[in-house]
Records
---
Amino acid sequence: MTSVLQVRELRRSFGAVTAVDGVTFDIQPGEVVSIIGPNGSGKTSTLNLVSGVLSPDSGSIALAGRRIENATVEQIAEAGLARTFQNGRVFGTLTVAENVEVGAHSTLTALRPLRGLANVPVLRWISLLAELAVALLPTRAARSEQRRLRADVDQQIERFSARLGPRKSDPAYTLSYANRRRTEIARALAPQPLLLLLDEPTAGMNQTETAEVQRQLAALKAAGQTMLLVEHKLDLVMALSDRVLVMDDGAVIADGDPATVRRDPAVIEAYLGRRRERPARADRSDQSDRLEETESRVGETV
Amino acid sequence: MFDTLVAGLIHGNAYALVAVGISLIFGVTHVANFAHGSVFAIGSMTGWWLIAERGWPLWLAIVGVLVVTGVIGLVLNVVAVRPLSKAPPIAALLATVAAALILDNVAQLVFGARVRAFPPALPTNNLQLGGVRFGTSDLVMFGVTIAVMGALAAFLKFGRAGQAIRATAQDPEAALQMGIPVPRIQNLAFVIASALGGLAGVFVGMYTSNISPSSGAAAGLTAFVAATLGGLGSMVGAVLGGFVLGIAEAFGISFWGDGVRDLITFGVLIIVLVLRPGGLLGRSPTITTEPLTGTFNAVGRAIRLKRWQVWLAVAVAAVVIPLLADNYTLTVGSQVAIYAIVAVSMTLISGSAGQITLGQAGPIAVGAYTAAILTAINGWSFWPALLLAGVVSAVVATVLTAPAWRLRGHYVAIATLGIGTVCVAVIRNWDSLTRGAYGISGIPAPSLFGFQIDDAVGLYLLALVVLLITIAVISRIRSSHLGTVLSAVGSDEIAARSAGVRARDYKALAFSVSAFFAGIAGALLAQQYTYIDPTVFNLPMSLLALTIIVLGGMSSPVGAVLGSIVLVGLPELLRITPDVRIIAYGVLLLLILRFRPQGLWVRSAAKRTDPENLSPDGQEPPSEGDSSRLATTLQDDRPVGASS
Amino acid sequence: MTNTAPLLELSGIEVRYGAALALQDVSLTIRPGEIVSLLGGNASGKSTTMKTILGLVTPKAGTVALDGADITRLSTPKRIAAGIASVPEARRVFPQMTVAENLLTGAYTRRDRQQIAGDVERMYTHFPRLAQRRRQDAGTLSGGEQQMLAFARALMSKPRLICMDEPTMGLSPLFVDKVLDEIARLNAEFGIAVLMVEQQAELALSIAHRGYVLATGRLVLSGDAAELLANPAVQEAYLGRAG
């Protein structure tokens, strides 16, 4: 079985800072893998390298066996990767339904005739003009694809029917932050991607909203969707992930199932060690015992 | 050879002075100040007036010019730029464009439009070196420029305010938190930059001896190219860019004649933007990441006409007006329709795809000349010529802008500006095909089924029919999947690309469609005028087209038609003279940007928001919370009561 | 320390972004020479409180007072001149200016040239790493060095209160300790009050005297650092669970 994603020795520097330093990992079909780590540890850079927003200095990335480390963002999307962004990026002037429709762009054929030429210099104009012609005078196939597209869009919005259903025709700039993020997830799912990248899908959400997103993602996982998740909220990560990668200073310092990662001494060292070294302020000797107790318990739970 | 180099250095000298100002302002306010050329021209004219009319000595006149242009710079910032500091940068860019229109035409009213002889303040031909004659004047110019540049560099490096300027340029928020009064520093940057521009105006006057209030646009553009060449925001780069450009031009002109100046200027620009988008010394990432798309007006919903309203409007336009109006009104009506064709098609590229284009006069000119040459010279019939005008215009514009679409923000605006200038420059220089500056006359009237369409009613109806077809085509595109994709590109290019949308290609397609219709409009314009020459297709024409759609709300075809009626029709009917009219455009554009950025005919959407916006998650940008770290988050798992 | 008059006092602050309420009835005091940490989860209003103190946002209601004088309507530069300094989030040193020039921008509100030069030298004595790099552009420094520069830059305005927005953010664990030690040292040696916004409550409270906890724009808890550390509600609030 080919891995959905295969990342080998990925490196990328910005000036003197090595943001991603020799990262290697695999994602198997149906797996949910999470990347955790402190700010500046290279999580988001890794995500941007995989999705083609950044290009690596060295290393390889393969999506379903196809090398993509030098491909453009658009080509990677067409190869079956979809993503969401850290603070949620929707098309503000488009309605919710139109946002989702754009998500399905890479799957269209009748509305984008001769799209095979889109990668060829100069000749790509043939495909562009063909697309223009179909927009003006839709062929029968184009009309039926348009209908199917509408149905697909409705189906995606159905996932969040309670929240997005009534706002289907509202422009996205009128949506609340949480609804924008839902729209973004619906858009990313529209092309039925091989791999879904989620960059902090619950950032800025409260507990109820986080729980709701968690349920949605669990349902997706149950349906077999392969996902790569970057997230700070550990209980979400632990509940959803098959595997967790821990990054620090650009490198993966632990990789394993959630329970193993929690016990990994390197993880505890990197994130919790310093708290044991730091005594509380002097004038509270009466509580120092309790603090030590607290810290040792945290050590246990991790 | 050597004298060409001297000529290049002297021009480069002036370009450098103007370009440093543009770069300084861009650095401190992140605004591409298109009014800078106008300040330069006012400097020229003020210098002429003070010396020739008032009899001031040169040094005193220079002081006077510095004061006048410095004050203009201050007013420019306070009135046009700073009020828009919270709006997206493109709004401030357009505001400086509006300010340029106002300044240029006020200068024409004050000083008169004609070319003046700049008085010879210093000897220009009294020295000789290596067979080249030059004058004290040239030496003084060089000396003063070097002294001024040195002083500016020292001020920025060591001066208290100079360091504050640099700090503000690098990080305005942090500068404010250090106690640096950022608005005052921005004023200072505008004053210094504008005074330098004024000084350059005097120098160019001393060198070329001929000056006019309308010289600003060309000088400003060239200096802009110089600043971009060096890397916007970099002072050293601006000086370097100025000299590189001055010398390249001087040699180009000595080989190919004066007409190639614009071609060289923008040729150099395009090459630099393709090879090194950040300029020679610029840091491209800081500039290219700016979200400078046209979505600043996304705060409203365009008016949609009901079906009966559409039919009523068409009936009035097609039946009532031809029956009731006199010939003059009908001619004005044709003008309105022709500009509406340009504007309606521009809503696709500037509205949907969010790319501000400042050079639509270029494709209009190409279309007009294609049709004129085919019908008047080659004897073609009108209809195939009309179609070909659109096609040629689209192809030329597409090829010329091809490198531009991978650029972002200011650079797209500058590149499209270049297209307008380059098209007209080629037309002016290609004498054998276009008859150059003489223009083409005797453009025949079209005929349909044997009937000549040569009266006002016929031409009006012709323009109206083409307009209706344009509206139908553009509306159809906008409502298709393609239209949705174009809007997605304009809304968020990164997100669109991540959905597999080839953003660059779609921007190019939207631009070619609008260039096609601009070409058609140009052909109609040629029929109307029966005589065209290159001066018709100037920068104000491009800006008028842009103002029309800004007024109409950028992405609304109906708004574009209404904008055309207000901006083209009303001034004609009220018989306002051209310079006053252009001042009015400028003022109107400023007022819209400041008070109604969503356009005049767009309902504000403020009242209609998602009720969930009031929930806590909408209160602050989520970035604050994004930094919660593993160590704290891990405590989620702590058994309840562990710490008590 | 508890009986001195407050250095800074916020009372009844309300801030709105458009229709959304960002801060509601927030009142807090900072006494001279005190380290106060401001805690809270996502979108709790910590940064907005900081911006209100610095004059970067204008409150709809309430007052900000420094030494008992109302500064609610004062511009940011005037507040800096009055003795409040800022160590912005993510440090924000001026990357293309040298270390020395960065220090001078910190002294922008001062006019005493001689003493400024002396203070620059004092900073070099205090932060020897910066002395080694004084001619180097700040953008070439490591994250920890930039944090030190941000501290030194803030000190150059001779403040009585320094506002620090997440000073440990994005630093490696080793440096986090150094930065916290440094804050405690600045406080002890220069007697400067510190208001510190932190995500990592336990770290912040380990050097603070007192703390305030914000949740969804309201103050929910306040007290001595030790009390807060012991309070289970703190855990909830700063993890964003209260909202």
---
Amino acid sequence: MRATETTTPQAAGNGVAPAGPPIVEMRGISKSFGGARALDDVSITLGAGDVLALCGANGAGKSTLVRILAGVETADAGTIRVAGEDVSIDSPQDATRLGLNFIHQELNLVPKFTGLQNMALGYEGGSRTGFLDRRAARRRAVEVIEGLGGGVPLDTEVERLTVSERWMISLGRSLMREARVIAMDEPTASFTEEEAERLFSVIADLTKSGVGVLYISHRLDEVLHVSRDVTVLRNGRMVGTFVADEIDRDRLTREIIGREVTDLAPPPEEAVERHLHSEPVLTVRGLAREPRVHGVDLDIHPREILGVAGLVGSGRTELARLMFGADSPTGGAMQLDGKDFSPRSPYDAIRRGVALVPEERRSEGLLLQESVARNIALATMHDDRQPTTRLLSPGRMRATAKEMVERFGIKVSSVDQLVGDLSGGNQQKVVVSKYVRAAPKLLILDEPTVGVDVGARGELYGIIRELAHAGAAIVLISSDFEELAICDRVAVMREGRVVDIVDGAHATKDHLTSLCYAVPEEKQA
Amino acid sequence: MTNIPIDAGLRTSGRSFDAWKFFGRYGALLVLGLMIVVVATLEPDTFATRDNAINILNQSALAAIIAMGLTFPLVAGEFDLSIGYNASLAGIVACTLMVDSGASIPVAFALAILGGAVIGLVNGLVVTGLGVNALVATLGVGTVVVGINYAIAGGLPVSVGEEAFIDITLGRFLGIPYPVYMMIVLAAILWVVLNRTVLGQSMQAVGGNPVAARLSGIRVDRIRVIVFIICGMCAALTGVLLASRTGNASVNGGDGYLLNAFAAAFFGSAVLRDGQFHIIGTIIGVVTVSVGFNAIALIGLGTYWQYLFQGTLLILGVGVATVARRRAG
């Protein structure tokens, strides 16, 4: 154990010295998802009354590690010790029994229940009969919320509370029982500064009472502020564990990014210049949808691949949905080919030549129970009609699907195969084919390579390049900044705004990541 | 290309004959076949005759029309509980128009079916515009429909003496009653709509995944309204034909079709397809029930056997198919 006393103001005067065994110790944890290594020999140690931060870029393996501790996933290898004893956590119930509590970004509250009802879920204190002892539950809930500084209404439906109040209810729920560890995933993502300050003092109180806090955040200043130690993950491997006092923000950023070789072709040369001289396909001015997107300006040119970089929650997906008419903006305007463009639905957008390959492939992109051919036809069914009878021709539908299957190298036994039986990469190619069939002038792809294996990934890049070459404008949203190397330009989004546009030659992972993490002071500069 | 596991895309291709899968798809048909064979053996003189076969189809026709209509909301992932009341109202409206306003038969039919379409439209608008769950919306609209029915007829049956009106359901062509032709023609039209038009495919897409359908440029709300309208029109057609069959519209004559139609459509979803609603399945569902009822009558069992049979059939048909699909993986 590290003996260094942290000087972080809130954690100072920490009464519980890390004398006993660490409260949670994960050793040599490895985990693979179908061939892909998500975690490779990762170890973390969290002492009672300590705050351990977990840092890493998107996809570094933080969530997988937390999910293993929460019993949602099972590790392929490695051991977990809680308070010095070997344990196996096979289900979320096991984790709860061990006093491990998790506050995920989604919070998992019942929106129609009041704060009290939510906190009482799973609370059995004072009940001997199996019925919920409401008075005992209320007493305990009030006690917990007071302990957290109070001020959170307990009798209001959770859906009417602010994000930070909901978060407090969620934290309160885990404190109803005795909690030894609380893991917080991006707690301050939607907090104001005061709300964040309040959270930090709550964390200080928790640690004083001996609770260990696992703090996961992209906000590095915060991380350094609240935690004693910081464990950095990169591509599923441990980079190291650092004492928060002995490391600064720049060093931490470097450790998170690492030095990696990009296997993608370098960004295209003088072609970029040529694209930018042509009239933009889409101009976006002041486009907003509060509270996630505030006034975005953007020009997208034909034959251009425009990357959009940003951390999770920076408003990238929301922006894409606005351009596609899937959501309606609260402000701003767009022009497509010089004409006013305000799509009221994806139907309008597709007819005007704008398509979006959505982020959630399975839930937003596919009819899993239907065939490959039907899925590919979905956005352009009118083209499969027989000219004379105007009726759909399954023959034509299958013929076009076969063309797409060949063009994009989709691995299927036949176009009648159910799309749900395909691998992630092939499913993604089906979704892309569906929208390519609509011959879009502007194709937006939201995280097209998530869950796609390396080979298919390369092929998808090939498809994207080919489409741009044929004259389409491409918007590529990605959390994998290495893949943005294929872009002509990259727009960086932070907190709902486009804060910078970097040309392809300078869009290194390094540079983009530091732009995404920029601290508020830099933003104003 | 070489990085992709060879078997990734080909999981189902090499699968040999799968008994569970077969049973899941054809089990319901086997039940129908088995039932026909058994009853034909037991009652060869009365059951296995041409007349009785026509009789069974004739008995099925009205239920099939309303059930095929119901298949549309079900395909799109919606429900319609107003169909029975809608059918009752249509009979009352058609007969009242003929008796009180002296409307001709075609006009009375057209207006009654138009009324059914309006009820469907209201259902659709309440579901899409107000965002009310379809079960609640159609229950509410259905109750309002009952109210309108009583307001028009005062709770009393309306009789139409006209021979031509009764002849619509009792008349025969080539020895087969008109309703059987109507069922077949309507089935053909609705099958084409559902399987060979952009509209029908959009309905299936909305039922399969409304989010993906919307992001694929399908106007989901419009599709939802249309399925309710088709359903409402079919219900009204059944209601009018029912009144014609007896020459007399009773205020609750069509109410009983609600459960029949649901039972048939759900049983039909277990026929040939993996739990998807479809026109042919629905017809087979209706015919299976009719065969059972017919057999119960011919063998001379009590009426209560009809209910025991229909309930058991529904649970077994859908239950066995569900289990079989799970086993087939």
